[in-house]
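Take just one protein record:
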Amino acid sequence: MKVSILTASLVASLFLFSCQSTKEVATNQAEEELPVAQEEASTQEEEELTPAQSYQKRTEGITLSVVSSPKETAAGRAFSSPYVVHAEKDESAVANLGVSAYLLATEYPLTTDENGNAEFLPAVPVHSTLNSVEFFPSPIESEGTIKRDLDLMIACLDKSVRAEYRVHTSSLSKGGIILLLDMKGEKSFDENLPTSSELQKNLRQLGFTGIGNGPDFSAEILTGSDTAVLDAARRFLGRNYTGFLVYGKLSDKTQKEGDRAKSSLHAKVNCVDMKTGKTVCSLEFIAEGSGKNEREALLDARKKVSAEIASQIYYNL
């Protein structure tokens, strides 16, 4: 009987110990599995992010700024200094950050140094242009490329900073003929050609030489036919003329407004490189001028039109 009682007691003790041990093991297993489950859930969440979302999360808090930009150069000449950009997060420099310089549809990889700075020196430009270069934190390999993912490109541009990229023409001594008609009606124009004269002044200030008013092919300009204008220009100037040709029409609407006057000058202008036949620029825009009287307002508008045309030639010829 004592054996039976002892046996029962041992069985009960073993059962209780077994239950407690099982409970402790289960608890320990649950505690060990919890971080693993959380890690798997976190990994799954990251796997579900789109490339754009992954990029935004990874670059959150990082800001770029342009420290310095090079002076503009001429086509065929190197830039005198590089662009310098700075990366920062929480007011501290970000070292070893991949940064992209995006210029003329091409992406250039850079890396920030220990001070958070990255330099970009463009190649010697072949053509003149007025453009910009964008800088942004580079996507990593797993996020893909901006050329293949529009959402990723938008995310990159949201983080970007911009700097001007200016390359002016190296053909300042090429020579040019200008014939801009300041219309006084549908078929008549100011024979003094005031806007042509203003444009010549702007071009000379930029360094152009050998420019002036051309022979009279105003009849062809009035037809609105570019082919007729170019054929007439070649007849007058000769087939071997290698300068540029600027032609077009301007019409204004000028009126008094209280004690001031306002002028809206509608310009439709083309510039053609006569050597290559290439259209340098084709413009149609309205410039607003103002002044104490109608004459001053129109003169102000002409100055703005001439400045814009000169700039387009300077950066596109």
The radius of gyration is 36 Å.
